[in-house]
Structure formats: C-alpha cells, structure tokens
Amino acid sequence: MGTFAIPGSNKGLTSRASADRWVAPKARAAGHARWRLYWSSASRVPSVYNNGIANQAGGRMAIKNWDTKTSRIVYHRFEAGESLLEGLESLAISEGIREAAVISCIGSLSQLKRRNLCRGKDGVRGHERETINEILELVSAEGYVQPSEEGGVRVHIHVAAARPSGEIVGGHCEDAICFTGAYLYLQVVEEARS
C-alpha cells in the first residue's frame, strides 16, 4: 500500500480517505477554496496542489495554473465544408488568443481524420490512422489552443462522433470537415501579448 506524504509535514496517510480528511480542513483554513490531491503513478507518491502552489514529492506530473482576473468565452459557428482544425487556428489568431480550452463543440462532419495510439511491433507505441468519409454527428470535441514553438498557435482536439447507427467513433482529430456546420465555445485562458 502506498502512503500519501503531505509536503511540509511529517504526517503520512495510508488512504485517499484519510488524506481527504486531513488535507481538506487544512486547505480550507488556509483560504484555499479548491484543492486537489493527485496520486502520481510513476513513483506512487502524491502531489498536493493548493490554489496554484505546486508541491510535488516525486513522480511525473505537469501542471500550469493561470491567475486570471477576467476571462472571456468566444463562440464560433463553423460553416459547411470548413475544417475544424484550420478554422479554430484561424479563429485563435484573428481573436488574439494565445491559450484557450475548447469547452463545447457539437455539429456534424462529412469527413473525420483520426489518429489513435496502439501497440505497434515489439510492444513499441504506434499510431493507427483512419479517414472516415461519411456523415457523422459531432457529439463532443475537447481540446486546446497553445502557443507553438514557431510563434503561432497549436490546436489539439479529440472528438467523439456518432454514425447514424449510434456507433461512436473518436480519438485524436488530425482534421475534420464540417457537414452542415459546428458550434464551438472556447474559454480564453491567455491573450496574445501586443
């Protein structure tokens, strides 16, 4: 059994429930409205994140917090024949968006190019690609916009789409072409610097 180690304390907790009982009151008393306890699978040592302060006692975990005073949500309607990825990238650039999260996207697709992870030869990680050329109901899309190393933005989206039979297909979206259109809500996290 693993032990929850609480940074700044000699207290070791042997279950998530006991960690919850010990950490929650301390976090609330310190004025942290939200707190999360993460169990790191790499080293079996948890990390406690209190309102943007990261204390990690081992393992592999990346976290980035934004302290935003204001935020905005951008709505965009994709037209028939428009590329979901290219359209989102153009929207981000034209709206001066540096980082954002896709919070909702529904619609219909006439083509979906997807890529999913799979176990390749000799157990090595590989990718399976598929292009689906049929009418799909875009049930959900999630993802983000981040700055690219080249100075532009990078769009990363995962989709779930339904065939007329109700069968769901999805995965990492390499591209998608809208059939009748799509409706996107984007939570802006960081504006581009002028």
- Low-confidence runs (pLDDT<50, min 5 residues)? 1-19, 26-60
Q: Could you give a short account of the major beta sheet?
A: 6 strands, antiparallel
Beta-strand proportion: over 45%
Oligomer: single chain
Tell me the CATH architecture of the largest domain.
2-Layer Sandwich
Fraction in helix:
10-25%
> What is the overall shape?
globular
By CATH, the topology of the largest domain is 60s Ribosomal Protein L30, Chain: A
Structural class estimated from helices and strands: mainly beta
Q: Quick one: how many beta strands?
A: 11
> Briefly, what CATH class of the largest domain?
Alpha Beta
Kindly describe this structure.
With 194 residues, this protein is mainly beta. It has two domains: 4-56, no CATH class; 72-191, 2-Layer Sandwich (60s Ribosomal Protein L30, Chain: A). The chain contains two helices and eleven strands, in the order E-E-H-E-E-E-E-H-E-E-E-E-E. Strands 6, 7, 8, 9, 10 and 11 form a six-stranded antiparallel β-sheet that branches. Strands 3-4-5 form a three-stranded antiparallel β-sheet, covered by helices on one side. The radius of gyration is 21 Å and the shape is globular.
